[in-house]
Design a protein that fits this description.
By secondary structure, the chain is α+β, with helices and mostly antiparallel strands. It has 1 helix and 5 strands.
């Protein structure tokens, strides 16, 4: 999947002062999903078919921790 920032959306609700959540678009072979992520909080919504659904989930704080995995050499 290729992830890129999705900018064609109104501003998102800020989780904490100084944080800047971003809407992302992930494109794969069969589907495109949208999710909102705050890298400062290390949380994101699950993927949604429509950007508005992802924004609504963010406003409800329907989020989960981001799991970063280290690359194994």
């Amino acid at each position: 999947m290729v992830e890129k920032q999705y900018v064609n959306h109104p501003p998102l609700q800020v989780c904490y002062p100084g944080h800047r959540p971003n809407m992302w678009q992930a494109c794969g072979n069969r589907a495109t999903v949208y999710f909102v992520e705050c890298s400062a909080c290390s949380v994101r919504t699950r993927g949604f078919a429509e950007p508005d659904d992802a924004a609504h989930a963010w406003a409800r704080r329907d989020v989960a921790p981001i799991h970063f995995t280290a690359a194994v050499a």
